[in-house]
Specification:
heterodimer; A: about 375 residues; alpha/beta; abc type-2 transporter like fold; 2 domains; about 10% strand; B: about 375 residues; 14 helices; elongated
């Protein structure tokens, strides 16, 4: 600002803002791609996350190589066959088990060695599980279920006059907020982060760059319109789309997937407004700084979309990251919003979690909008 | 024929110069894959290394101290608080200060000494139920070891336990990083390929330079090849960067042959570029190109088997994954890189990717021609 601006009736400012916003809004609604991203993408993602992605495994194909013909060994084999987690069938030899594994027809091989029941009588029964580590997460899940089958079998046999193998210390566990261990409970709220990021940052990433590329921004500068008004007019229509996306997600989470909303709706809306503003400001900032649609699109993917997917903590636990990477996650807005969403949906209005995270988001939005203003302003001079 | 090749070559050189001459363009193409590969290599794992927990030890006996000592010594469990009040546990979990709160009853040691079963309570924060289940799994393992030690030290004839020993092929310690990082060869490049091709064509259209190209002797198919080949070359560069990080930073052993892997990468890149060109055939502006690309990138990534197993998906979605080039690339990357399988076993991945490349490139050429005519 050089010198105080001449005083205008406040009606002029409002009229300019309304005119610009109407123009931007029309531009949005006439372009099918905005509607595609504002409405179609959220619906696709909701369906994919709700129905398609699941970390709960059932019917894992398994081969059993039974080298011991004792009743014990056959009994253990049949408990694998009865388990709902496995689709187990007997094969003749390790060789055929191996072939099935390599061909990808089974995900694991259980081998019950010839001396199984003899060694078990000596207190050292052993069965083997062979998994492919090519998908390590999946292999771990399979290993966990197989351990469970063996433990259950042992416990059942204990009931027939043998002493229990479990204990003396038993763990009674309870998972709070998600008793049924339903993965939709954390995937669907996490999905809101992705949708808000896509709507916020992607839609605005090219808006300013396009005006710079075409020279229309300079044309705007010679009009009485102020920089703040230009930025506001760019934000308002996309903000509307973002809120629409949020409404879709919350309705789907609540009524389609039965995810509880234990916190207050007002807090959820407030948190989402803040995050959406951060995402919009981030997109605008990238766009106004780079002034090239091509580069802006690539940069937005790297600094907005991928961190929201990987560094926000909605899939991967942030506490377990190495220190340097953990520090990086604090720079991106995703982790604050995920903490808010998971808490508001599943735990309730826990103010010690809500207030600090909202404060960080508010600060980020303020900083990014100021930077956008600064970058746009500098170029006029 | 030769003239046509020469024309395409000229276009390829021009495209590559346009992308690589700009230092920002160079940076946006080669730095992000390397950085993302580093970050994701550390992030993308469901293993836990730090589980903050609190303990409510109402027994304060030798036995309970021993159990807590075992937890602290695991290297995974970090004791953040000791709580005595019953509502302490609730607020520790609510505030996300502790992932687990473990309660030990007053008669813990007495019951153990009398040969009775003693229960401990574990409350887990289920806001991410996957993390909670993993943490409880670790806790059970540690308690299992405590039990074995206790039985060994205090007699109590061990019951005929059955052990399940697991052997894992290709990835002995089941490190998630080993299968995530090689998969990034596909997962990171697909977005870049789609965006680079779709945006490049959209830019020409927006700036009107495509009309200038049309008055030259170039045929539409040559113009398309001139867009596709540079993108594929850039993709090879990015894949190489990722493979270098995988081998020299993360030291993940490479079991297969580079020739096989690069053959797969080549087909995959053409398939991804074909999808990008298809997007550009429909996009009227760069904005549309970006947004339409994302309509493809998201489902491609989520339905690729990278984050969740394909076999968990409903049948309809499993059928949809059949047209996803990334699904085959991730499978192929794991098969060559970790399992060291040869071309014969890779055909189920190579053939569909080739087919997808053929279909997308042909469709894009036809639509492109129709739109220009």
């Amino acid at each position: 600002m050089t010198g105080p601006p001449p005083r205008r009736p406040s009606g002029g400012r409002l009229a300019r803002l309304v005119a610009l916003t109407v123009k931007e809004t029309r531009q949005v609604y006439r372009d099918p791609s905005f509607i595609a991203v504002g409405l179609v993408l959220p619906v696709i993602l909701i369906l994919l996350f709700g129905y398609g992605l699941s970390l709960d495994v059932r019917h894992v194909p398994l081969a059993i190589v039974l080298e011991d013909s004792s009743p014990d060994a056959r009994d253990l084999a049949s408990s694998f066959q009865l388990s709902p987690y496995f689709d187990a069938h007997l094969v003749g030899s390790m060789e055929s088990g191996r072939t099935l594994m390599l061909a990808g027809r089974v995900d694991g091989v259980i081998r019950i060695p010839p001396d199984f029941s003899r060694r078990r009588a000596q207190g050292d029964g052993e069965a083997q599980l062979i998994v492919s580590g090519a998908d390590a997460n999946f292999a771990r899940i399979v290993q966990g279920y197989a351990d469970g089958v063996v433990a259950n079998w042992t416990a059942q046999h204990a009931g027939r006059g043998e002493r229990p193998a479990a204990g003396p210390v038993l763990v009674e566990d309870r998972v709070w907020f998600n008793n049924a261990n339903n993965s939709a409970y954390f995937l669907v709220p996490g999905l809101i982060v992705l949708i808000m990021t896509l709507i916020g940052a992607l839609l605005t990433a090219l808006v300013m760059a396009r005006e710079w590329e075409r020279g229309t921004l300079e044309a705007l500068f010679v009009t009485p319109v102020r920089v703040g008004e230009i930025i506001a007019s760019k934000v308002i229509p996309y903000f509307g789309l973002g809120m629409l996306g949020l409404a879709l997600c919350v309705v789907a989470a609540r009524f389609l997937f039965g995810v509880p909303l234990r916190g207050s709706l007002a807090a959820l809306v407030a948190a989402s407004v803040l995050y959406l503003l951060v995402a919009l400001a981030l997109g605008l900032f990238i766009s106004s700084t780079l002034k090239s649609q091509f580069v802006a699109s690539l940069v937005t993917v790297v600094v907005a979309f991928l961190p929201a997917l990987m560094l926000s903590g909605f899939l991967f636990d942030l506490r377990s990251l190495p220190l340097v990477v953990r520090l990086i996650t604090y720079v991106f807005p995703g982790r604050y919003y995920v903490a808010l969403l998971q808490t508001l949906f599943l735990a309730g209005d826990v103010w010690p979690v809500i207030l600090p995270n909202m404060a960080v988001l508010a600060a980020m939005a303020t900083v990014l909008f100021s930077l956008t203003r600064l970058v746009t302003r500098k170029q006029i001079a | 024929m030769f003239q046509s090749l020469a024309r395409v070559w000229a276009l390829v050189v021009k495209e590559l110069l346009a992308v690589l001459k700009d230092p920002r363009g160079r940076a946006t193409i080669f730095v992000p894959p390397a950085l993302q590969c580093l970050v994701f290599g550390y992030v993308a794992t469901f293993d836990l290394t730090r589980v903050p927990y609190a303990v409510d030890d109402r027994d304060r006996s030798v036995a309970s101290a021993r159990l807590i000592h075992d937890l602290d010594g695991s290297g995974v469990f970090l004791r953040v608080a000791e709580t005595a009040r019953p509502d302490g546990a609730a607020s520790l979990i609510d505030d996300r200060r502790a992932l687990l709160v473990i309660g030990i009853d007053q008669d813990f040691q007495r019951r153990l000494e009398h040969g009775q079963a003693a229960a401990i309570q574990a409350l887990a924060d289920g806001r991410n139920s996957n993390t909670a289940a993993t943490a409880l799994g670790y806790l059970n393992t540690i308690v299992g070891r405590f039990n074995a030690d206790w039985r060994a030290a205090h007699g109590g004839a061990g019951p005929p336990a059955v052990r399940l020993t697991t052997r894992s092929w290709y990835n002995e310690n089941l490190e998630t990083r080993w299968n995530i990082v090689p998969s990034l060869v596909g997962a990171l490049t697909i977005g870049e390929m789609l965006l680079v091709t779709a945006m490049a064509v959209a830019r020409e259209r927006e700036q009107g330079t495509i009309d200038q190209l049309l008055v030259t002797p170039f045929r539409p198919s040559e113009i398309m090849a001139g867009k596709a080949i540079p993108a594929v070359l850039v993709g090879f560069g990015q894949s190489t960067v990722i493979l270098l990080v995988a081998q020299f930073w993360f030291r993940i052993p490479f079991a297969g042959s580079y020739l096989d892997l690069y053959a797969g990468i080549g087909l995959f890149l053409f398939a991804a570029t074909g999808a990008g060109l298809l997007v550009s055939a429909f996009a009227r502006s760069m904005q549309q190109a970006l947004l339409f690309s994302f309509l493809l990138i998201m489902p491609f990534t989520l339905l690729s088997g990278l984050l969740t197993p394909l076999s968990n998906m409903p049948r309809v979605l499993q059928a949809l994954t059949l047209i996803n080039p990334l699904r085959y690339m991730i499978d192929l990357a794991q098969r060559t890189y970790l399992e060291g399988q040869g071309l014969a076993q890779l055909t189920p991945d190579l053939a569909p990717m080739g087919l997808i490349a053929l279909v997308t490139l042909t469709c894009a050429a036809v639509i492109f021609k129709g739109r220009l005519a």
